[in-house]
Specification:
The protein has 434 residues and is mainly α. It is built from 20 helices and no strands.
């Protein structure tokens, strides 16, 4: 892999520094504000006497806010660049975490969660993926996979947060997390650059000059703009690929959204200790490294549709096992299937979007997909919390989410490939509308 990082001059291509900085930011900041936030669930509920559905609603409201803001954030990324958006996001996320440490009412809790959703959407959402897609073409999926691998290591933050909550309480721990966003997230965001051409580079560190038809930031070898005009967001909305990819994400996202929120409450409800449950977070994110890097490496070599489908099969099996867990030993097969399964689409999804629709409007197109994807982010956590409040058991909802994941597989197979995108430009099939 190191050979990939070296240019002919012996220097590391700057795109890899963007990947590295984003990966570290995902690990530390994403771990505290995303994967590790489930560790605050029970302490907040116990102190403030809120039930599972009430707290889960905050996560759903975060999804609503993120979805509503996603098209605007995507549009801003395309026009202002990824770095400015990411720096703003890290600052806002830090503020929101510190404000959350002072909440005492549900209304304040929801309001601060909405603010945090804006911050994380800017700092940890579309922007780093758009930047990576701009800086890489032939190795695009692999670069995105390495970048997203930071989330795979973010599981270490879970046990750290549990320890800090035990020592200082959840309120002071949130202040520590907020300061971390500033100290770590903002400097790393400043490393990011939006397009390589603005700094005298070409995608992948290639040396050949761009032709006039490639001035929009495309690599001559694999960029879709070299095979036809980039899609605008409006044009993308009426393509089969946009909706097949989006529907796949909605169906597979149900389980993902609910497990992120309810993993620890569910496991403790069936008699597994908080400490073991926190290590399960580390296990999931660690196993996701297999999916991120493995499927990311394969994504530049094999049909991405099949890779998405295989990931969904693994996720389905993992969620079904999750529904039947009766002791710590059953966490192992769940982690080994679910971790690689859900993470397979993380590098594949933005690569398909950039491959098929081009780079010029990928922020806006990704924002529209994120808006549609709020369906799962809104419904899943609240539904899981409501089922537990009514039945005292999470298991039925996990089975339902496993079925939904399986239903997403056919949609993956209906996505058009980059080869079909090239055929569009050649007039073999109808071109995008204008």
């Amino acid at each position: 892999m190191f050979a990939y990082l070296k240019r002919a001059t012996g220097r590391v291509f700057y795109g890899w520094w963007i990947v590295a900085a984003s990966s570290v930011m995902f690990c530390i900041c994403g771990g505290a504000a995303f994967y590790g936030f489930t560790t605050f669930f029970n302490p907040i509920a116990d102190e403030l006497d809120w039930n599972a559905a009430q707290i889960s609603l905050a996560f759903s409201l975060r999804s609503v806010e993120s979805g509503i803001m996603a098209p605007l954030i995507g549009w801003l990324i395309d026009r202002l660049g990824a770095r400015k958006i990411m720096v703003t996001g890290m600052f806002v996320t830090g503020v929101s975490l510190m404000l959350m440490s002072r909440v005492s009412s549900l209304f304040a809790f929801y309001a601060v969660f909405a603010l945090m959703s804006i911050g994380t959407s800017c700092g940890l959402g579309l922007a780093p993926y758009v930047a990576a897609a701009n800086w890489f073409s032939k190795r695009r999926t692999w670069a995105i996979a390495i970048m997203s691998a930071g989330y795979a290591f973010s599981g270490v933050v879970g046990p750290v947060l549990v320890r800090l909550i035990g020592l200082y309480g959840w309120r002071d721990t949130l202040i520590i997390a907020g300061i971390t966003m500033w100290v770590v997230g903002i400097p790393l965001s400043l490393v990011v650059r939006h397009r390589p051409e603005q700094y005298g580079y070409l995608p992948d560190g290639e040396k050949q000059p761009l032709s006039s038809s490639e001035a929009g930031g495309q690599s001559k070898t694999t960029g879709p703009a070299a095979r036809g005009a980039d899609y605008t967001a409006r044009q993308a909305l009426i393509t089969r690929t946009f909706w097949m990819l989006t529907l796949f994400g909605i169906l597979t996202g149900l389980a993902q959204s609910a497990i992120i929120v309810h993993e620890m409450p569910y496991l403790t409800s069936i008699g597994i200790s908080r400490q073991i449950a926190s290590w399960a977070i580390l296990g999931i994110t660690g196993a996701s490294l297999i999916g991120r890097l493995g499927f990311g490496w394969m994504g530049d070599k094999y049909d991405k549709r099949y890779l998405l489908a295989i990931g969904a099969v693994l996720q389905t099996a993992g969620v079904l096992i999750f529904a039947r867990i009766s002791g710590p030993g059953m966490l192992i097969p769940f982690i080994l299937l679910y971790g690689p399964g859900y993470s397979a689409q993380i590098p594949i999804w933005p690569a398909i979007r950039a491959d098929y629709f081009g780079l010029k409007h990928q922020g806006a197109i990704g924002g529209l997909q994120a808006l549609a994807g709020t369906v799962s982010g809104i419904a899943a956590p609240v539904l899981a919390g409501w089922v537990f409040d009514v039945r005292g058991d999470y298991r039925p909802v996990w089975v339902a989410f496993a079925v939904a994941t399986a239903l997403g597989i056919p949609f993956a197979m209906l996505i058009r490939t980059r080869r079909q995108r090239a055929m569009l430009a050649e007039g073999v099939v109808p071109a995008p509308p204008h």
